[in-house]
Write a structure and sequence with these properties.
The chain is an all-alpha fold. It has one domain (2-102, 135-159). The chain contains eight helices and no strands. It has helices at 5-27, 38-41, 46-64, 71-100, 104-114, 121-127, 130-156, 160-166. Helix 3 crosses helix 4 (71-100). The radius of gyration is 19 Å and the shape is elongated. The model has no long low-confidence stretch (mean pLDDT 95).
Length: 167
């Protein structure tokens, strides 16, 4: 348990921040009045998501590895963190869909048919529903987590020269 304590902590932090982001989206009208802009502005969440992954990896480096972390150790940590975020993703999506913004799916379904993105309500409902978003969220968390970790660890990993100097 001690080995994954930091990843669990950051997965919970990530999930809480994601829920706060959804609340901000709802309160700003992106799930209703300004739903046409949702597709574009929701992707801005990538900024805090990447930032949280970097903070988690740095936390792992300092707290668990004593300031020295290899690329592989960081990659492993990031993969574990991404798995935890993906496992929590259906719960955060459920909270978003049924508590924070239950009007989102009906609004996006209606609007996507109005603008001709889908021809019928039934077609739109096939895409815009909790089950589909829960699957997409979990898969997206894994893919983006892996990519973010792979890139971030290039910069976070300890350089061999630094380790020799400390030894």
């Amino acid at each position: 348990m001690e080995k994954i304590k930091i990843e669990l902590k950051w997965a919970l932090i990530f999930s809480i921040i994601a829920l706060l982001w959804m609340l901000i989206e709802k309160l700003s009208g992106l799930h209703g009045k300004y739903i046409d802009y949702h597709l574009y502005l929701t992707n801005v969440f990538a900024v805090p998501a990447i930032w949280m992954m970097v903070l988690a990896l740095k936390n792992k480096k300092t707290q668990f590895y004593g300031g020295y972390i290899t690329y592989l150790q960081g990659l492993t940590s990031g993969i574990v963190l991404s798995l935890f975020i993906a496992l929590l993703s259906p719960l955060t999506q459920w909270i978003t869909s049924y508590i924070i913004s239950p009007e989102y799916f009906p609004n996006v379904i209606k609007r996507s048919v109005e603008i001709g993105y889908y021809m019928t309500i039934e077609e739109a409902e096939t895409n815009f529903n909790y089950s589909n978003y829960a699957k997409q969220g979990a898969i997206g968390a894994l893919i983006m987590g892996f990519i973010t970790t792979a890139i971030a660890m290039i910069f976070i990993r300890s350089k061999k020269n630094n380790h020799k100097q400390k030894a």
